[in-house]
Design goal:
By secondary structure, the protein is mostly helical. It folds into 3 domains: 9-86 and 253-326, HUPs (Rossmann fold); 91-250, Glutamyl-tRNA Synthetase, Domain 3 (Glutamyl-tRNA Synthetase, domain 3), CATH 3.90.800; 397-499, Orthogonal Bundle (Arc Repressor Mutant, subunit A), CATH 1.10.10.350. The protein is built from 20 helices and 11 strands. The protein has helices spanning 22-38, 56-69, 92-104, 115-127, 143-151, 198-208, 224-236, 270-276, 280-288, 303-309, 324-337, 340-352, 363-377, 386-394, 404-410, 415-427, 434-448, 453-465, 473-480, 482-495, and strands at 9-12, 41-44, 108-111, 157-160, 167-171, 175-179, 187-190, 213-217, 246-250, 253-254, 320-321. The chain has a 3-stranded antiparallel sheet. Strands 1-2 form a two-stranded parallel sheet. The longest helix is centred in the first third of the chain and has 17 residues, at 22-38. It binds one RNA strand through helix 4, strand 4, strand 7, helix 6 and strand 11.
RNA sequence: GGCCCUGUAGCGCAGAGGCAGGCGCGCCACCCUCUCAAGGUGGAAACGCCGGUUCGAAUCCGGCCGGGGCCCCCA
């Protein structure tokens, strides 16, 4: 806070392949928080250079997810900016031009090796215990050799020529890291068909967009020396402003069994969390804890607090395991923090999904929801639970059913007199509100039949709400109304075996 | 196989030479209680290993072991 740098320019640059996953969200979060903390600029860039994997659908999902999470960006799709366009598929001429310049300046060269040849040599190198990257085969081809290759019909890729000096950088998370040139071989930057690769377009755009800090996943740590070398070459040929960004590599988000959380892992899918009813607040709060902490003794915070406190130096380099239980707990905390009206507002879609509420809920339905919501708010981990918790109030009475398992356990022969006595007690009750309901039922069941409260009320709960777990019983009865309550109690009597 | 990152309770984070260790989740017990939650109280549980530096090491150094990643005409 005291030490902010408004000139910070960071970027979030996902590739639109499939569903957004939580690791991606964590990276976006840290970049966003870093930009906002420093009062800098967040650039949102779409890296859709792989036609085989990227899709328009994924692109739309990505934007939608960013909006849902509450991230805003200063430059990028839909907001534009001085470095537009921000979709790499629309910048192909730029990359072709840069590749041409790199070739002309000798920083890159044509490589005619086939994939098969490369694979074979890589295997051999590995077997011999040597670094298995590209071996420099085409670094210095003679014109005759080139002519031969061309005659064979080979089309070359463009390969970047790495310098032969050690490359060091000071990682913002991990400190100084040095790579020996023999471990960082020349690498491809343009496919044989002319399509540029990530290895080219990512640094080129970072240079052109004047990115100052690159915060990304640890999986890209070992390609950082290549990018630094490419930056130097770009500076030399006049692409970008000549400066190299700082790099910070965020810890992995691990899934079950010490494996990097994969896109295919269902636990990784952002959409799944949305569907279950996670709040953006809760999910982001949890994700922030994967590699960072606000304070020693505080886990629950909102994004404003995170922005105020976040800095990259405080990020921990350890891989972090995604702990669903803790994620759920934090979500529950945020659910409880919601203002009542806001809580109700967010609940609506989750009741609409299974058809318990229509697309345009009526005033009466919303009123009922507003009344039951407070009874559920602190019992809830994810919003989707509203369906099981309060569905009994919204379901068409004709369609109301009792959970089979719960009925089998609770609506036994013993329950029959309990239900019958309850009906009798409630029928003539003058004031059908929680206090009188409770008093009447206690008198009839606990005092009258000598049954412990716990066992007296459970059959009623199952009869009225359909489940053994529900919002408080007497309030539930009031909201259901006397007529329907009595009808359900009577129906439950029919379900009990006659003794 | 080579290189790089990483190693504090089951999990996530604090602690950065000085009482062997803090917080949260989870777990166990008890209290509260119409169910489930929430809340309250208490409890079990950790510095990967071996050396070195030092009066003193979770903290500094080296080695080992473990985990992960990268090494692609994917990003």
């Amino acid at each position: 806070m005291a030490d902010t740098h408004p000139n910070v320019r960071v970027r979030f640059c996902p590739s639109p392949t499939g569903n957004p996953h939580v690791g991606l969200v964590r990276t976006a979060l840290f970049n966003w928080a870093y930009a906002r903390h420093h009062g800098g600029t967040l650039v949102f860039r779409i890296e859709d250079t792989d036609a085989a994997r990227d899709s328009e659908d994924s692109y739309n999902q990505l934007l939608e997810a960013m909006r849902w999470l509450g991230f805003d960006w200063d430059e990028g799709p839909e907001v534009g900016g001085p470095h537009a366009p921000y979709r790499q598929s629309q910048r192909m001429d730029i990359y072709a031009d840069v590749a041409q310049k790199l070739l002309a300046a000798g920083h890159a060269y044509h490589c005619y090796c086939t994939t098969e040849e490369l694979d074979a040599r890589r295997e051999a190198a590995r077997a011999a215990g040597k670094p298995s990257g590209y071996d420099g085969h085409c670094r210095a081809l003679t014109e005759d050799q080139v002519a031969v290759y061309r005659q064979e019909g080979r089309t070359p890729i463009v390969r970047f020529r790495m310098p032969d000096t050690p490359l060091t950088f000071d990682d913002l998370v991990r400190g100084p890291i040095t790579f020996d040139p023999k471990d960082v071989p020349d690498y491809g930057i343009v496919r044989a068909n002319g399509a540029p690769l990530y290895t080219l377009v990512n640094p080129v755009d970072d240079a052109l967009m004047e990115i100052t800090h690159v915060l990304r996943g640890e999986d890209l740590l070992s390609s950082t020396p290549r990018q630094i070398a490419l930056y130097a070459a770009l500076a030399e040929i006049g692409v970008g402003n000549g400066s190299t960004p700082r790099f910070g590599h965020l810890p992995y988000v691990m899934g079950e069994g010490n494996k990097k959380l994969s896109k295919r892992d269902p636990q990784a899918s952002l959409n799944l969390y949305r569907e279950r009813g996670f709040l953006p607040e809760g999910l982001l709060n949890y994700l922030a804890l994967l590699g960072w902490s606000l304070a020693e003794d505080r886990d629950v915070f909102d994004m404003a607090e995170m922005v105020a406190a976040f800095d990259i130096d405080d990020v921990n380099g350890n891989p972090a395991r995604f702990d669903l239980k803790k994620c759920e707990h934090l979500n529950a905390e945020h659910v409880r923090r919601l203002a009542p009206e806001e809580f109700v507002r967010r609940l609506v879609p989750y009741l609409q999904a299974p058809g318990l509420l229509p697309a345009e809920p009526g005033a009466e339905q919303l009123d009922l929801l507003a009344k039951v919501a407070p009874l559920t708010q602190e019992r809830m981990v994810v919003l989707g639970e509203i369906v099981n918790m309060a569905g009994f109030l919204f379901v068409d009475p004709a369609a109301f059913t009792v959970d089979e398992e719960d009925a089998a356990k609770v609506l036994t022969a013993d329950a029959r007199p309990v239900l019958e006595a309850s009906i009798k007690a409630l029928e003539g009750l003058a004031d059908f509100t929680p206090e009188p309901i409770q008093a009447a039922l206690r008198e009839a069941l606990v005092d009258g039949l000598g049954i412990k409260p716990k066992f007296a009320f459970t059959p009623l709960r199952v009869a009225v709400t359909g489940r053994r777990v529900s919002p408080p019983l007497f309030e539930s009865m009031e909201l259901l109304g006397r007529a329907e309550t009595l009808r359900r109690l009577a129906a439950a009597v029919e379900l009990t075996p006659a003794s």
